[in-house]
Amino acid sequence: MNIMTEKSLEDAVNAEMNRPNEPIKMRGDQVTVHYGDKQALFGVNLDVRQNQVTALIGPSGCGKSTFLRCLNRMNDTIDSARVGGKITLDNEDIYDPKIDVVELRARVGMVFQKPNPFPKSIYENVAYGPRIHGLAKNKAELDEIVEKSLQKAALWNEAKDRLNEPGTGLSGGQQQRLCIARAIAVAPEVILMDEPCSALDPIATAKVEELIDELRENYTIVIVTHSMQQAARVSQRTAMFHLGYLVEEGPTDKMFTNPDDKRTQDYITGRFG
Ligand SMILES: Nc1ncnc2c1ncn2[C@@H]1O[C@H](COP(=O)(O)OP(=O)(O)O)[C@@H](O)[C@H]1O
Ligand SMILES: [Mg+2]
């Protein structure tokens, strides 16, 4: 195959993989958040498309984590937080009183900034969720879920001979992949990641980024990142936040080359942030 053909094939595959017409998996409609008297988000409208990585960018304190936490009701755990507007998952209002929040958080999993494995074995870290959600009928099934989850999180080869050792004994990058395996183990549909690489070195970061790209085949991913390079590398859509407002949202390549809003332009060229 000559280089031209290979290039056009690659473009075609990329266009296909970017899947601009994927269904809307989650939708934020006029989302507001207050912490006590302080308003942190103002009427945010944002669609998250299935099997895509959506990056949330913007300067520190602009509301990225606040918005992310709305998507699986983690803000419920903050006493002063009040969420307004509407958020749907597969067109279903996730703030409807009939929604079981534990089940919602299994469908919409979360990976945090600092790897936070339980002080238990590698095996138990991954087995915990499936066990409490009753996903395995017996030990053999649980073993299989643990193995598959570790494989999907690209950690199996490094962990398979030390499943009974503490998760906290792994390196930082391995711990973060363990946390991703733990999220995957309960068969989520959406995975939320809040600056998942900020505590990792460049090599571990590259591994997690590569993993994120693989995961979107099977999951929908929303990632908060303060690294514009990371947003450009891993996401198909980028949403820019500023002072609690969604400034604009669009295909990642457009957002980084030809944004509509001056604030995005200023942010990506490093004028503030
Ligand atoms: N638990 C909280 N209690 C009170 N204010 C908060 C809390 N979390 C965030 N905030 C405030 O909400 C705003 C948005 O914060 P955050 O969503 O963490 O921004 P980002 O993730 O973009 O850095 C900030 O002004 C921040 O101080
Ligand atoms: Mg944050």
From TrEMBL:
Annotated ABC transporter domain residues: 26-268
Domain of life of the organism encoding this protein: Bacteria
Keyword ATP-binding appears in the UniProt entry: yes
Residues spanning the membrane: none
SUPFAM superfamilies: P-loop containing nucleoside triphosphate hydrolases (SSF52540)
Keywords assigned by UniProt, alphabetized: ATP-binding, Nucleotide-binding, Phosphate transport, Transport
SMART domains to which the protein is assigned, alphabetical: AAA
Annotated GO MF terms: ATP binding
Family note: Belongs to the ABC transporter superfamily.
NCBIfam families linked: 3a0107s01c2 (TIGR00972)
Protein name per Swiss-Prot or TrEMBL: Phosphate transport system ATP-binding protein
Organism: Aminobacter niigataensis
